Amino acid sequence: MNAPAILTSLTAIPRASGSISFLPPTRRTPTLAFIHGGYWQINDLVKENFAFFAEGVLPLGINLAVIEYTLAPAARLDRIVAEVRRSVRWLAEHLGEYGADPNRLYVSGHSAGGHLTAMTMPLAEVCGGIAISGIYDLEPIRLNYLNEKLGLDAVEAERNSPVRDVPANAGELVVAYGTRELAELCRQSIEYAQAWTKRVCRGACCRWMVLTTSRSWTRWRDQRAF
Fold it and tell me: CA 7, 81, 128, 8: dihedral to nearest 10 degrees?
């Protein structure tokens, strides 16, 4: 399916809080729910970009759902996390109505979306996740200019920091980042993967993926942790 066809195939699913855009499947297949980044303040995923993700996953037999949420400062982070979790649960309950397999729901996101992906991993409805260049410790965010719109206090930052509350049991998680990312994003990805490894060893596993780029080549280094 090419980009124009993908865009015209999008099904918008309005909800009371946030919305979901969904590409209806052709058969009963798994679904990837993608959560955009933008430091919880900007929607950096315009409609045209849906085609980019769809062109990657549809040929693999994977449906695509794109989750949106209320942005700061209109919503505090507690509300944003709750909205995304409700959207994931809603998908699990209703995917069958759209022809998808409700028992194979995976979540992914980058930057703030990586954080929100991590915050959905404790949900029983989530089979697995891919957190890309996420923010897993919110204390540095609380102490810099990004907090002007978020309004985080120490308690809310702690409560919504995935590295502080790794689930004891969850589906498999991929923690990915690029070596040319901000140093803080690299550090947090490493620390979160290590924390996940220590805590979840009995219930699930974590893949730690580092994207290394140079002038002429790209490669993945994949470290599996148990």
Answer: -10
Q: Phi/psi zone of residue 38: left (φ > 0), alpha (ψ -120 to 50 degrees), beta?
A: left
Domains in the chain: boundaries: 3-225
Contact residues for 186 (Cβ-Cβ < 8 A; gap 6+): 177, 179
For 2-11, what is each residue's pLDDT tens digit?
333 333 344 5
Token output for 106: 């995976």
| E strand residue ranges, the chain | 11-14, 19-23, 31-35, 63-67, 105-110, 128-132, 172-178, 206-213, 218-225
Q: pLDDT of 56-88, one tens digit each?
A: 888 888 888 888 899 999 999 999 999 999 999
Number of Cβ within a 10 Å radius of residue 117: 30
CA neighbours within 13 Å on the CB side: how many for 215? 0
CB atoms within 10 A of CB 24: 12
**What is the pLDDT, as a whole number, of residue 145?**
95
Q: Are 169 and 202 in contact (CB under 8 A)?
A: yes
Q: Which positions ≥6 away from 20 have C-beta within 8 Å?
A: 12, 13, 33, 65, 66, 67, 68, 87, 90, 91
Tens of pLDDT, residues 139-179: 999 999 999 999 999 999 999 999 998 888 888 899 999 88
* The two structure tokens encoding residue 152: 């985080």
**Distance of alpha carbon 150 from the chain centroid:** 19
Q: What's the whole-model pTM score?
A: 0.85
Q: Which CATH class is domain 3-225?
A: alpha beta
